[in-house]
Structure formats: C-alpha cells, structure tokens
Amino acid sequence: MLVYLIITGVGFGLLMAFVTNGFVIGVGKITQMREALTWFQFSLGDSVGDSMLSLTPLLAMLVAAVLIIIIRRVFSISRWHGPGDSIYAAHRTDNELDVKAGFGSTLAAFVSASGGASVGQYGPLVHFGATIGSFARQITGGRLTTDIFIGCGVASAIAAGFNAPVAGVVFAHEAILRHFSVRTVTPIAIASITSAGMSKWIFGDSRAFAGVPDINLVEVLPIALIAGPIFGIIAALYMMGLRHGIRLVGKTGLTPSQLLFLGAILTGLVGMVLPQILGLGTGVVLDMLNMELGLAMLLTILVAKAVMTALCLSMGFFGGIFSPALFIGAAAGASIQKLLAGMGIMVSGPVMVVCGMAAVASAVIGAPVSGVLIMLEMTMNYDYALAAMLSVVTAALVSHHIYSHSFFDKQLLDRGIDISQGRG
After folding, report:
1. Spatial CB neighbours of 266, under 8 Å, sequence gap ≥ 6
2. Is the pTM of this model over 0.85?
3. Is residue 133 helix, strand or coil?
4. Of the candidates 305, 280, 283, 308, which has an alpha carbon nearest to the alpha carbon of residue 293?
5. Per-residue pLDDT tens for 27-45?
6. What are phi and psi of 65, to 5 degrees?
7. Which of 76, 313, 318, 391 has its Cα between 20 and 30 A from that of 82?
8. What is the CATH number of domain 217-415?
9. What angle do CA 243, 244, 246 make, to 5 degrees?
10. Structural domain boundaries in the chain
11. What does CATH list as the number for 2-203?
C-alpha cells in the first residue's frame, strides 16, 4: 500500500507540474502578444491630449466569446464546473466528477483569461487537478478513496502555481477535503512536493514576491490588525457582487451566446479605457507591491476589477475568483497605506499589499491558514506572514458573519448542498 501511495503522489505531482505551468505560461504568453498588438490603435485627437486607444481588448474578447461558444457545444456543457464541484465530490462517496465538463471548463478558463476576461486561473487549475484525480479513481478501482486522488490533484496544482508545496498540502485539506488523516496526508504531501520541485527544476523559481523589503514588525502589527476587518468587508462585498451578478443576469432572458457577446463588448470597452483590469493583472499587482500607483487609480481599479469580474463570470466567461481577489486585496492594502501616509502615519506599502492579498483571498476561498502559507512561501519572509496572519483572521471572521465561510460554500448552498453537515 505504501508503494501505491508513493506512486500515486509522484504521478500526480509530475502531471500537474506540467499542466499547471503550461496553463500559466500559455496565458502569460498570449497576454503579452495581445498587449503588444498596435494594429488597432487610434488617436482621440488634440482635444483630449492626443490620447491613444486600442480596439485590441474589444476584438480579443469577441474572439474569446466565439471560442467559448464552440467549447460549450463540443463538450456539451450546460454550466461551468469549478472548485465548488471539487469540494462536493470530495465529500461524497457516490459522486464522481464529470471529467468531460472538467476538461471543457479548464479550456474555457484558459481562453477567457487569455482573451482578457477579468477572471483568475487557480480555481480552474484546482478543479482540473480534482478532475484528474476523480478520473484516476474511476479507472484504477477502489484501492484508494476518491478524496485521496482529488487531494493529490488539488495540492499539486497549488504547489506548482504558487511554488508553495506546504500551502498546497494544507489547502487541499483545509479548503477541499476538510479533514486530516495520515492515509491522505502521505500521498498528498508527496504530490505537492513533487509538483513544486519539478516546476522549479524545469520552469525555474517563480516566487513573484521574493525580495520584499524588511519591516519593523512591531510597528506593522497594530495596523495589520485594524485593517483586517476592512479587508473582510471588501471580501464580503466582492462575493456578494459575484453571487448577485449571476442571479441578475439569469433574469434577463438572453441566451448564453447573447450574454457572452454582451459581456465581451462591455469588458472590451472598459478595457480600452482601463486596461489594468483585463486578464489576470499580475503585472498590475507587482506595480501595487512596488507602490507605483496613486490613490485615485488604486481605488478606481479596485472597484472596476470587482465589478468586471462579476460581469465576466455572470455573462458566461469562466475562470477563477482567487486571482481577482488577490488583485482587489492588493489594491485595498495599497490604498490603506496611501490614506495612512496622508494622515502622517507611515507604514510599509509592500506589507500592506501582502496583508490585503492574503486577507481578501483567504476570506473568499475559506482557507485562512493556506492564505498565510501561500504568502509566506511567495515572499520567503516570516515577518510578512505574521502581519498577514493578523489581517487574515480578522478578515475571515468579519466576512463569515456578513456573507459565509467561503464563496464556494454559499454557491453549494444555493444548489441545496450543505457541506457543513459532513461527509456522506
């Protein structure tokens, strides 16, 4: 049995290392190509300072809409499948994931993010890992339970995506499986470490926030604690917008194809004026970490990102909600630092950005420990992780009281599924 557990863990780790990095690198390359296109630029004239606008965001979104319509038809998908389905499958002994829908949803997420839709990439990758796990369980029989296979896939995706193997193990148990046992930890840990190790060896070290400046922890902790509830309120409002956006769109009477094209046009038009909200926004997050944006721009893109993510997901595009949550949290943290500086209270900008990212994202996915560990492994700075922990725990408490334990729990409750009742 031990040999079988090791083989399972290593196999999942190797597979998800290539799939996850292929997805992330692919989206990044297409995004660079899209942003570099200058064919469709035009000038607004001297009356507005000879500003330049580009039609590329609009055209890219329309192309993405066409491709997603094709994906829907080829895979016969009535709704996109994501982490909520992974959580439900891990809690059932008689509920295997729909492999065809899982693959189709992952492909749709790739197209959406590459085209510029305001969505994330990690949720689809997590579900893809879970789908691979469910598929492996179906073809190998009952030697291992479904939750072990799903956990291996999920942990591997997080480990490769963030170069965070410890966070991958904890996330699989905290957010998806929601239970710990020696039997599950062994293969999941092997899968996570293998995935991170292979990713680093083949694709290089991808720690986005390494090299952050040192901080005086004693000065930061009170502000991180006070900022936590603000981050929690922002996370709750973000989740409410996502949920109600989907409900409102369902009442329009438009067909899925009509909604997609409408969403593409609206996102493209906003992206022409505010390109920072398009796609994953990784470069913009790094700009916020380096405090290169002013307060007015920070507040603008904070609101715009939340609104456009809700619009894209409700209109039929697909992707994760974790990356937008990181973006929104970063904007919130940087805004708080700017406001405090205006009042004469000096605090490190990068640490507030990290606190905001960890707090908002953790509240959205319902995994506070994982959120802290992801920031620890991405920054490799213990003081930043401690500051983030204070913001995370207070934000999670506030968002739980306002909204729910996580967006996915509420999503499942809307489908009549109560995960709090336990496994069965």
Report:
1. 311, 315
2. yes
3. helix
4. 283
5. 999 999 988 877 777 666 5
6. -60, -45
7. 391
8. 1.10.3080.10
9. 70
10. 2-203, 217-415
11. 1.10.3080.10
